[in-house]
Design brief:
The complex is a heterodimer of chains A (583) and B (1070).
Chain A lengths: L1 H23 L15 H4 L8 H14 L19 E3 L6 H6 L14 H17 L15 H24 L23 H15 L19 H16 L23 H15 L26 E5 L3 E2 L1 H6 L13 E3 L1 H6 L26 H6 E2 L4 E2 L2 E2 L22 E2 L17 E2 L2 E5 H16 L3 H14 L17 H15 L6 H7 L3 H6 L3 E8 L5 E9 L15 H6 L10
Antiparallel strand pairs in A: 1-4, 2-10, 3-9, 5-8, 6-7, 11-12
Chain B lengths: L6 H21 L7 E7 L10 E4 L5 E3 L5 E5 L5 E6 L2 E7 L6 E4 L30 E4 L2 E4 L7 E5 H4 L7 H5 L6 E5 L14 E4 L2 E4 L13 E5 L11 E4 L2 E2 L10 E7 L16 E6 L5 E16 L8 H14 L8 H9 L11 H5 L5 E12 L3 E13 L15 E14 L4 E17 L3 H10 L24 H6 L2 E19 L7 E20 L4 E6 L5 E6 L8 E23 L2 E16 L5 E14 L3 E12 L8 E12 L4 H6 L3 E15 L13 E5 L16 E5 L15 E14 L4 E18 L13 E22 L2 E18 L21 E3 L1 E4 L3 H6 L13 E3 L13 E3 L6 E12 L2 E11 L2 E3 L5 H5 L4 E2 L2 E2 L38 E2 L3 E3 L2 E12 L2 H4 L6 E15 L16 E11 L1
Parallel strand pairs in B: 1-7, 15-18, 40-49
Antiparallel strand pairs in B: 1-4, 2-3, 2-5, 5-6, 8-9, 10-17, 11-14, 12-13, 15-16, 17-18, 19-20, 19-53, 20-21, 21-22, 22-23, 23-24, 24-25, 25-28, 26-27, 28-29, 29-30, 30-31, 31-32, 32-33, 33-36, 34-35, 36-37, 37-38, 38-39, 39-44, 40-43, 41-42, 44-45, 45-51, 46-50, 47-48, 51-52, 52-53
Amino acid sequence: MKHRFQHIVTVAGFCLVGTVILDACQKNYESVPLGQTATIDDVFNKQDSAGTQALLFLANCYQAALPNGHNRVGGDYLDAASDDAVSSSSTVSAVQQIATGQYSAASPNADDDWSKNYTAIRDANIFITNIYRVPLNEQLPNGKPAIAAYRSEARFLRAWSYFELVKRYGGVPLLGDTVFTITDNAQVPRNSFSDCINYIVSECTDIQDSMRTESMVNGNSYGHITQGAALALKAQALLFAASPLYNGGNIDPNNPLTGYPSYDINRWQLAAQAAQTVINLAAYSLVPSFTNVFITQASPVGSNTESIFWVQVGTNTSVEKTNAPSGYTSAGGNGQTSPTQELVDAYPMSSGLLITDPASGYDPSNPYQNRDPRLAATVFCNGALWLDRPVQTFDGGLDKPGGITQQTKTGYYMRKFMGPFESSNPPEYSNTVHDFIYYRYAEILLDFAEATNEYSGPSSAVYDVLISLRQRAGIIPGVNQLYGLEAGMDQGAMRLAIQNERRIEMAFEEHRFWDIRRWKIAAQAYNTTPLQGLDIQQTSAGLLIYNPISVLTTTFFDPKMYFYPIPYSEVVKNPQMKQNPSW
Amino acid sequence: MLHPSFKKCLLGLVGALLLCLEIAQAHGHFHKSSPVRGTVVDEYGVPLSGVLVTLKRTKISVISGQDGVFSIDALPGGTLVFSHPLFNISEWKIKADTAITIRLSERYLPNPVSPGKAVEYHDTISLPAIQEERINVLYGRTNAASFLGSISTVGNEQLSTTPASSYLFAIQGRLAGLNLDQTAGIQNFNSGSLTNTNTILGIYVPTNSSGPGPTDNSEFNMTLRGHAGSQGQNPIAIVDGVQREWYSIDPESIESVSILKDALSTNFLGQNSSRGALIVTTKQPESGPTRLTISAQTGPQTALGLPTPLPAYQYAYLLNEALENNGRTAAYTEADFNAFQKHTDPIGHPDVNWYNTILNKNPLLSRINVNAAGGSNVAKYVINLNYMDEQGMFVTSNTNTYNTNLDLQRYMINAKIDVNVSKDFEVQLQAFGRLQDGNQPGAGAGTILSNLLSTPNNAYPVYNPNGSYGGNTNFTQNLLGQVLGSGYDLDHLHDILTNLTLTYKLDKITKGLWIKAAGNVSVQEETIVNRSLQTPVFQQVTSSSGDTSYNRYGAANPQSNTFSTTAWSRYRFFQLAAGYDRKFGNNSVGAELLADQKRSLLNYDLPSELTNFAGKLSYNYKQKYFAEASGDYSGYDRYEPGHQFGLFYAGGLGWEVAKEDFFGNLFPWVDHFKIRATYGRTGNANVDYYGYYIWREHYTSSAPTYAFGSSYNEGGFNAFSEGGAPGSQELANSNATWEKADKFDGGVDLVFLHNTLSFTADYYHERYFDVMQQRGDNIQLIGIGYPAENIGRNLYQGAEIELTYQNRVGNFNYFFTGNASVQQTKVLYMDEQYEQNSWNVHTGRPVGQLFGYIANGLYQTAAQAAASPTFAGYTPQAGDIRYKDLNGDGVIDQFDLAPLGKGRPLIYYGLTAGFNFKGIEFSALIQGVGNREEYANSQYMQYVNEGFLTQGNVFTQAYQQVLGRWIPENAAVATSPRLTAGGNANNFSPGFASSSYLLQNGNYWRLKNISLGYNLPYQWLKRAKIGSVKIFVDAQNLFTHEAYKGMDPEVSLPNYPIQKVVNFGIKLKL
């Protein structure tokens, strides 16, 4: 009996354990982990008439496509890799590597955005191919369905990303609406430069009518891409296509990836017309104060009627803290950007005359007197007022103390984009709008002037553009009301005038770097002389002595560096991918 | 160590001896001289039975009885020899016809040695059937004789001489095939919080931890036969039969550690069977009178491998040189050098050796261990209590009411009770509890150590004249301030584990049948209390009028008081097994069926479940021919439903050659000779290393958001992006499956010369396939990353040998044991991108081969530099490293990357020798690695080797290493390239790759452990009823021979350095 009882207890015990194990197999957790519940059907939800998730995905598309240009490339402005500035960094900065040709296919430069842009293109394609599953109710103020506008925004972002690629690499693979899966063969060949431009232009043309216009923007939709942006992108794509590097100056005329086989003047006409279209919208105009362009929000929400397309950055003090002269320790200033003497010398006198003009009255011993006000708005020169004291970039000055602290290499600091802190006391920065503007009206005007001059010569319309910019800048009209411009310039002289105007008007806005390439003057800009700065000595009597110094010997391997190399791994992993010439 | 199956015949002898005893007593005395009577006891003073007592140089022998008493016919002047397989052999000279008590001391090696064939003279005694020796294997114990796999074991005597916080310190160099590489000197302080969150569909969800779950090993990289933990291939730790990542257990508390290396012995791990098993068995219950062990020990620690910083004047001088080499202006003047060197201006020109300032030379490591075991045949128990305090090396201050030092304290209780409820039914219960309290300075030990590495001697003064901490705009925190004045963090870890095992013998149904049920629950939680603060620093400035004022830098944050959980986990494990073991004449058969499931809950993740349905069949004929087969249908629920289960199987054969008559006749001096081989298919479910549910395609939030709206808050939600694993931005891998391996292991076990010399050798050949890696044509054009896929094939092969010799001369018992392993790996297939140059190809080279540029000395002249190929855009100068242009295209680029080093098979070894003589115990372990190469330029080694790196606006510290820099005057003997400030693109991370210039010979051997102890004579203790008192001193890492002197061969900076410990203690047994 006793044994039997023991058996029963034991067997029951083991059964109990078995039951517990079986019980453990019962479901008591969700089968899909929280955080991974969202599938594409949830993002593009067939029941979601507000489109909440889909619009969040669109935000991701924006995020992926639009970089903040402030100190973007390894902590520096892209233009610090051109002849306009150098990085103040004591180490070999990313922009210095670009300016001195230290990059290759295997170790790409810091502006190599191949992967980043294809990520943005993939995201845009997901949105473009799926958004129509969402029964979005929203309407634009003009009664049109907003869903089309949102889809067009994604198409814009895709076209914009392609254009970013084309600027860097020439023709790139066009993927259409394809979203590759893990089983797809993604070994796609490059499309020609011409195909890419055509694609970007046709996309912009297709979407322009479905997008918001400037006047439809309200406080909530502020930051969404508008019709003006699409037309501006089209204008810029066509301007590039008409430019010497691609149009007549193809570094490898038989290579459709790097440009057109021959020159066609009609490309300039298309560019001029495209810029004219933006002008004709009559939605944009120049802001009276040059400095306000960069620190105010766009109309109709803000007063900035000039801004067409920008990345929403918001308000902060980081531009000031990163780039302001380094002697303002309490406010913070890291003096990251050192503009070159070449840039400073490009600014005319307040009369509009170039400093090389004997009539300009330029005084090398007092070089910053009576200059184009845009100089002071773009560059801190020695003696400029900032945070209630003069900037001291002479040797041993507060902003160039020597030793190992980061400080200017050229005797200049960058002023552009900063808030009006000239006489702030206490010397502190406050939050300032730092949206980075990609396209603004002034540039469209310059695009128009450049294309028109190339197509039909320096007409009065071309003069008018330069005059309007100089007028706004605060240059004295002069007796002939030409704001210092020479009357009756020929096409070549006007070309130089436009190029110089573009340089000084658009400095640090990521134009100079690309302009010297598309104009095919990069070899000259980089290789002629080392970049210059000033060594300013203050005598005991307080007298300033200005000595030019060389700050950086730049190198440009002509012509291969007109294009970035396609990343080595992309070429070697994809037999269809052709590398750029000489890389 | 010896293969435990060697023990078979030896322990058989014990059984034989026990039987002899009864017969001997029954037969009475054979000789007529007056008997010498005595008692034999063990180290606890507990009577020891089964000891063979022999009159030296005669064949007269008796065996001690249950009460330890023996009686032998002998005369004074004769010598008695006391032998027992588990104890050192002892001789005693008979002095007078009085009762004596002899205490035997335990052998150092767990492998018993035969007392010899001394029983032969009792011609009336025949050897009984051999009692099997059982060894600890996966989920239980098994017959050593029939074990066909590859195993290495260390026992408590070997472990307990290591003064350390974890048993891993003690097994380094002692287990063949297991290579331990120390990476840090103390357990990491865990300060990561669980409360980081993502937003998904508007809900806050904490980030998933995924991965393998928490481990308390942050000090060692463990590789078994070359399989690294970085790919989730390190061995699975099985602590008392349960899979747990537990390593922070006092070496004294452990009975044995074994490593199982082959496919057959790990088959029951199913989805994890590729990884091998580290079987850790804590002290086991032992019946008999209570045996109590108390030990207390403490020892100062000394950090090894700290670099020597340059004094300020040298630093300033060399920084000037570096700046001038960069074409920049000098930063210091002659007057500065003088002020630094003569210390005339300690505030303006400080020269602080931070190593001497913030480090305490000899922090203590202290341990107390109490172990009690005993019981009857019905119930037996063991209770183990352990306390440990490991102090860190930072200085402390009496002005703080709290401790700021790095510190690790541990309290552990481990209790086991085995109860035989009836003759057939056994219940085993284990309760294990562990509390661990970590402490660190509020600034964080890791932060302080990396600041220590980078802060120059002249950065700032320690204190200002007004007593405040020194600092300036570039150094807004003071190192000593971070050590003493930053508050503290507390790390509380607690574990509780209970095991219950029920075993029922069903011999009544059919003989040899049994069933077993085992269950385990355990919880672990770790929290951090942050009581840190920040003390501002001040710079003294003197105005032109001579007034002194102070500028404040850095925040003054009051002490915080926050609490968060850093890890939380819960495990439950059930196992049901039924087995059948029976012998039919010469045929023995065994069978086992097993089902188990381990469910782990980590933090807020969904539980993961590993399930096994396994079975095993074994057969042997006359203990001479062996065969075994095993299969496991095993599943892991982190794979896609429908693709979670797989079959893993293994088989083995063995032949005990020494049992063949022909062999015994030919080689009578060979006691044991077994040939064995196993082969099997194993798996490794390491998918968690690649992300949480990587098979599931989904959309997830990404942190940065695009802010629409004029107030930039319209997009206040996070944006969406696609992914396969959270945060990875990769495609989902819906085909993910476990890695697999086909493993062969063949070995021989040999014992000769009356069991004094034993030898084991193993050869293995492991072909891994479906190894997770990214595909080669993972082009970026698709706009998203490719996930890890089951692509790779790797070959691992190697051999291990173990050799042990134990013998004695009189009372001098000595031993020698050594093991050596050699291993080589080869990439059989890797989905590589196309490489046009053979030297760029990875396939066919060792797994994890380092590639880099081949250095060819330094440029000695500017002309040389100008004429040579170099990196695009770099202008080399004299004193720069010259690299070989392998493809001859005039530039150094990715096509010139070649495998670095010789790629020879790695060798690692350990040699232990020692003796026991009249109460004096000595042992020493030398552990070493050969054919090892180390790349001496990790991110942090650059601080040491290169110096003057950019840190904000200033330059980092430089060390003695830079004194050998190239300058024209010492061009021929320079040991490093010319100095540069702010990093150099050519010399130290050429093209962001590696360089052979910095690849060093990593061979080393250490006097890992040395131990000397003295046992007080038993005569002094007997009356106090104390079994033994041992006073001892042991030392860890006393001496290191390293081929490359620039850094410690194991622990690299700025990890907490490896420690030399000299430990003093006392151990009582009663």
